[in-house]
Amino acid sequence: MDLATLIGMIGAFGVVLAAIFIGGDITQFIDVPSMLIVIGGGLAATLVRFPLAGLMGAFATGGGVAFKHKKVEPRDVIEKVSELADVVRKSGPLGLEGVTVDDPILAKGVQYIADGYEPSFIKDSMERERDLFIERLKEGKRVFKALGDAAPAFGMIGTLVGLVQMLANMDDPAAIGPSMAVALLTTLYGALVSNVICIPICDKLDAKLDTEDLNQTLIIDGIMQIRENKSPALIREMLIAYLPESQRAAFQEAA
Amino acid sequence: MDLATLIGMIGAFGVVLAAIFIGGDITQFIDVPSMLIVIGGGLAATLVRFPLAGLMGAFATGGGVAFKHKKVEPRDVIEKVSELADVVRKSGPLGLEGVTVDDPILAKGVQYIADGYEPSFIKDSMERERDLFIERLKEGKRVFKALGDAAPAFGMIGTLVGLVQMLANMDDPAAIGPSMAVALLTTLYGALVSNVICIPICDKLDAKLDTEDLNQTLIIDGIMQIRENKSPALIREMLIAYLPESQRAAFQEAA
Amino acid sequence: MDLATLIGMIGAFGVVLAAIFIGGDITQFIDVPSMLIVIGGGLAATLVRFPLAGLMGAFATGGGVAFKHKKVEPRDVIEKVSELADVVRKSGPLGLEGVTVDDPILAKGVQYIADGYEPSFIKDSMERERDLFIERLKEGKRVFKALGDAAPAFGMIGTLVGLVQMLANMDDPAAIGPSMAVALLTTLYGALVSNVICIPICDKLDAKLDTEDLNQTLIIDGIMQIRENKSPALIREMLIAYLPESQRAAFQEAA
Amino acid sequence: MDLATLIGMIGAFGVVLAAIFIGGDITQFIDVPSMLIVIGGGLAATLVRFPLAGLMGAFATGGGVAFKHKKVEPRDVIEKVSELADVVRKSGPLGLEGVTVDDPILAKGVQYIADGYEPSFIKDSMERERDLFIERLKEGKRVFKALGDAAPAFGMIGTLVGLVQMLANMDDPAAIGPSMAVALLTTLYGALVSNVICIPICDKLDAKLDTEDLNQTLIIDGIMQIRENKSPALIREMLIAYLPESQRAAFQEAA
Amino acid sequence: MDLATLIGMIGAFGVVLAAIFIGGDITQFIDVPSMLIVIGGGLAATLVRFPLAGLMGAFATGGGVAFKHKKVEPRDVIEKVSELADVVRKSGPLGLEGVTVDDPILAKGVQYIADGYEPSFIKDSMERERDLFIERLKEGKRVFKALGDAAPAFGMIGTLVGLVQMLANMDDPAAIGPSMAVALLTTLYGALVSNVICIPICDKLDAKLDTEDLNQTLIIDGIMQIRENKSPALIREMLIAYLPESQRAAFQEAA
Fold it and tell me: Model-level pTM?
């Protein structure tokens, strides 16, 4: 679980809900047609921009990564890889059969080695999956960005619709306030969807893109080294050289 | 048909119409002079920016591509091209006469081969059409972008005109509400035109630009290979090498 | 005449005027002090940004080009140049004396050849004029951009002045509506000046920059070829090679 | 004096003042606490962004250049430099003692030559001053940009403070209008400070940066040529080659 | 202490507080739920974008640097370094033991030399710390930027919540004003947090990034020179060459 995403989002909705409860009645803030305009309209306008299949996939991947993706420390990857290299050194590729690996990408690479695939096949296959994963993250970022733009726009459209209806029927002055309250709800929903959900997730995916690219490249390079039977110490040395200056520093400090 | 565009646009208008019907009376939302200001004014301001002939063409092409253009999978293009290469191998260029090809650009290339044109002529001629098509798509994108900027501006201008008229004649308090409702309609129209039609189509054309450029280049290269009588297997290999990493991956996975 | 600019601008003002007339009384929309704030203030703020002499020149050139400049088709330039080359071939440079040339830049080049100037002088002189013309167009674009930014800002300033005056004197409730109507006029004027005049002209000048640069370079190169007595067919060939891919295609298609 | 800056700024304030006087009473528009919020707050927020000493210097330099700096025509610089070269040719460096030079930078260079300093010292010293001057102009531009952003923000903050005070004390309905008028004053002040003073000066400094860099480089190069006793004609030729194409053209045209 | 940050921020809050006190009652401007929405919501939305640990660190580092970091003049660094080189020249590395150095980074370097570490170790170790410090400053800048975007958004969300509550309960007309005053408070808080705290600190960190990078690189290079026992004069010469043109000028001027 990515705790920051969860805590942040719960916190943001929490303070808004707290303000609503302090002010009185939450039913004043629930209006299904208003939700339909903002969420339905926003999704529909996003749909125009993307191919149908891609939208769902990007949505799912993006959401999943933002919430569930555990941050993998490059340091842990390097430790794990040199551990695995040690196993191969001692008991050959078949020794990997008994090892349990948590990271699904590393696990796949280990399986390839245990199954005795050619290095070029392993490299192609793993790089292909990394590229597809990165591509889906990017698409997910674009989808959340588009939705974060469309939701406030439909919030404003909904408020305009509500205002026109209210202004056209002003016979009962007592109804003006509540009508206008309902009209404003779409603007509120749009602001919430955009500022609490879409923009932060879009930024988070952007930050994850770089670290994921680095981590998976590290894993692929490590697996290739293991496959070629390099010594654990050498692998460790080489992988550290891949890290950007600042991360390498952090790594060496801990070493 | 590009279903995503159609579903998205119908959905977006649908939720707004639903909100209008739930609130009561759709006639409150129809005002022909307001439509004239937003659509007429928006188109006129767009017209200043572009040459007259180009505007209509770009509008038509852009709209057509956004709604009707079927997405062609590079994979299908490659399969079809190697199929055609097989025909040529077996029964010579004249064998292509009996083949039906759906894609109009591929069909044109096949016709060129069957008619025995020189390779350099075929290449020049097909690249020229690809460039013109891409150029029209870009112009279409610029037109929808300009209209998407101009429509909300004229929506605001229309609302200001309506407000001035309302404020200058406040003798009858009962008329204030309905007058203001009408004044707000132009802002609503402007927001709808921009957010439901123009910006999404502009984004869609942007996304189609890349895939169209790739697909048509693929087709041209495939046609050139067929014309030079290369073997289907070789053509397949070469075309795959043209694809960007992520698409090549998807292709090989399926193979 | 550039019909698109004229039709577009008349159309945009037309729909706004129509909306005003339908709503009643145009005198409600005319307020000389409000016009002074928006146009005078906008021009004054633009003046701070530019040197005095340059402003007037850029204003005149920009406006002139946006409205009057006839679009010259590269194809026509090339045809005309090869025609002139033919004349020189047949009857020598002096044969150009009797030829009438519409385009003023081409006419100047023809005059230089007829007068027997050195190639290097002709080239320097014509390139210098092209550069000055392009420079003035760019300056014109910057001036209209600055005015398009300043006009709505002064529209808002005018509305704030009007609102403060209205709010400070609310003794007569009947005067509130008309006072606010007048206050809103500056915002309306600012939006019109910016969206109907300045931004579209700025965009148009931007589009003309590229085509003008290409056309005048074409003319200069053509004149140089004629001066050096190249054959019309050769000149035609060389000039076509100057065109960007898409325009070259259009040209060859017509050939 | 830079007349455009002065005329523009007086004109912009003039039309606003005219609108205020036509509407009645200027005392309605003067509110010292509101001025404090916009100008004091804006300056304070700008102060956070810059080191204290730099702020004052940049403010002074920027303001001085925008208002007082006379535009120096490159042509005049070149003429003056070749004149001075002629003097040195005829009567040696000491002949410069009797010459009066208006431009302070050129005058300093002339003094260096008359005093017989080494070329490398003169070059270093003059380039250092040019760099410091350009650096101060850039800093000035950043300060006016920051103030132009902060002033409207504090205008809005001031209006919000005023609105809250007004809304919390609505016992006397007659006071609502005037209170709101005062609340709006900060927004008006912010818009004026930003649109009439800060943004135009920022743009002007941006335009001056390029011409100043060119002019001072011209002067330094000219002084170096004089110091090395080059002939006036040669110096003239070399300096013209430094100018950008468009200015060189203008120069040669006049020659 | 960075006086500009402190004076600026106190000044900005000061003018706003002054305006509040002049208008009457500060209790009207304190509303704890409103503060919770803006600050809690803003922090929560920022939290979604960043990893939890990084957020706190970046926040602390950024805040600390903006307020406390004393600007180190490159000139003082160079003087101090050549002083230290002189000590090493005269009494060997051990002579440094008795020297007190204020700057913590320089002090660390001096300690390394006194302790007789290898040059390559000293260089690696100090560069690593510089990179980590710069990285934390950049992260701090991003955090303040994100908070500066989120705070006004939550200000608007809070105002919408307040407006909906007020409009839904309009039975008591006397309560409308105060309710709306409270609703506006979140917008005011959001504008203050963003314009007085976040944006200026973000800009300040941006400015400090460059000078810190330069200063620490200067110190590291100086320490390396001292370690290699270079003469103070030579070190001075080399370090000056590192400075950008404008600073070198200022330095030489003073020399």
Answer: 0.85
